[in-house]
Amino acid sequence: MKIAILSRNSELYSTRRLKEAGELLGHEVDVIDTLHCYMDITKSRPAVRYDGAELPQYDAVIPRIGASITFYGTAVVRQFEMMGTFCVNESVAISRSRDKLRSLQLLSRKGIGLPRTGFANKPDNIRDLIKNVGGAPVVIKLLEGTQGIGVVLADTAKAAESIIEAFMGLKANILVQEFIQEAGGADIRCFIVGGKVVAAMKRQGAEGEFRSNLHRGGTAEVIKLTKEERVTAANAAKVMGLNVCGVDILRSNHGPVVMEVNSSPGLEGIEMATGKNVAGMIYDFIEKNAQPNRTKTKGKG
Fold first, then answer.
1. How is residue 121 annotated by DSSP?
2. Contacts 24+ apart (CB under 8 A), 168-172
3. What is the pLDDT of residue 300?
4. Fewer Cβ atoms within 10 Å of its own Cβ: the N or the C terminal residue of the chain?
5. CB contact at 8 A, 194 and 243
6. Mean pLDDT score of the chain, rounded to an integer?
7. CA distances from 34 to 70, 77, 120, 284, 292 (A)
8. 34 — pLDDT class (breaks 50, 70, 90)
9. pLDDT, tens digit, 9 for 90 and up, residues 237-274
10. What was the pLDDT predicted at 296?
11. CATH topology of domain 183-286
């Protein structure tokens, strides 16, 4: 098969692994810089151009769209969809998962476990906002933040008020969430391929750090999921409409709660921790499902 990986950097671990794994399986794999693509939008024959030429017809596209280029990246994925190319994750699903507020609202509607969350615009709502999520300590998140950036733990109501006022003074959109203290600074990354959890790891934050991101000094180890955790992760991916994603959950006193659904999950941590060939599993999914014009959301924006 002829497969394209949309990625800004061909040297990133995940991009390299996907290219290597595909070529080992006999596929022809091209890495294409998403921002260097430009689109020919014309009646009946949409195309994507790159480096002065029209790109060939690919059997499948693997989008690795960074959060900072979501708007343009999803436009490129949508163009491939209009061309009838099978995209591992569709543009609408990527956009849906990137909007933290919208994704939480969709998960809530489907009864997926979540930390209690508040969202507000006016500063005079702050005290009730904090009280409504269970009071301090609370976690305050920038809607546009990624990889733990823009996430603050406020230990007291006074500190929470000050942080929220500061963010609102900057016209930033924020979420206020209950702090799941019993999680002990750890979360669980569930890697989903084709609607199933294929690998899972526990990420433990560094000492004194409530964020468990590996690049912030966190550690990872393989973990055995409960049936409820496995079902929660798979359902979260289904609600987002993502075929390949990472679902981050916390173990709370009231069951597993979803923190985030990541449409471009990294492969290094999960493969190192579990010893599983996750990149190969993604190609297994492509081989079984890649067919022309199979985009479910075609024509729906």
1. S
2. 168/121, 168/123, 172/142, 172/143, 172/144
3. 40
4. C
5. yes
6. 89
7. 10, 9, 34, 24, 21
8. very high
9. 999 999 999 999 999 998 999 999 999 999 999 999 99
10. 64
11. D-amino Acid Aminotransferase; Chain A, domain 1 (3.30.470)
Which of these, 36, 28, 27, 50, lies nearest to 7 by C-alpha position? Answer: 36
* Spans of all domains in the chain: 2-96, 117-179, 183-286
Would you call 71 helix, strand, or coil by DSSP? helix
CATH 3.40.50.20: does it fit domain 2-96?
yes
Cα gap 209→215, rounded to integer Å = 12
Give every strand in the sheet of 186-193, ordered side by side: 219-222, 196-204, 186-193, 244-252, 255-262
pLDDT at residue 89 greater than cutoff 80: yes
| Whether the Cβ atoms of residue 272 and residue 191 lie closer than 8 Å to each other | no
| More confident: 215 or 12 | 12
pTM of the model: 0.87
Per-residue pLDDT, 299: 39
Q: What pLDDT score does 165 carry?
A: 86
Sole residue written with tokens 């990246």 = 73
Whether a cis peptide bond, with omega within 30° of 0, leads into 137 is: yes
Look at residue 141 in the predicted model and tell me its pLDDT: 86
List, in sequence order, every beta strand (DSSP E) within the chain.
Answer: 2-6, 28-32, 37-40, 47-50, 53-54, 60-63, 86-87, 117-119, 138-142, 151-154, 174-178, 186-193, 196-204, 219-222, 244-252, 255-262
Q: Is 301 exposed, middle or buried (0-12, 13-18, 19+ CB in 10 A)?
A: exposed
Q: Which amino acid, one-letter code, is at 44?
A: S
- The domain made up of 117-179 has a fold known as Dna Ligase; domain 1 (3.30.1490)
Residues 34, 56: Cα–Cα separation, whole Å: 15
Helix, strand, or coil (residue 258): strand
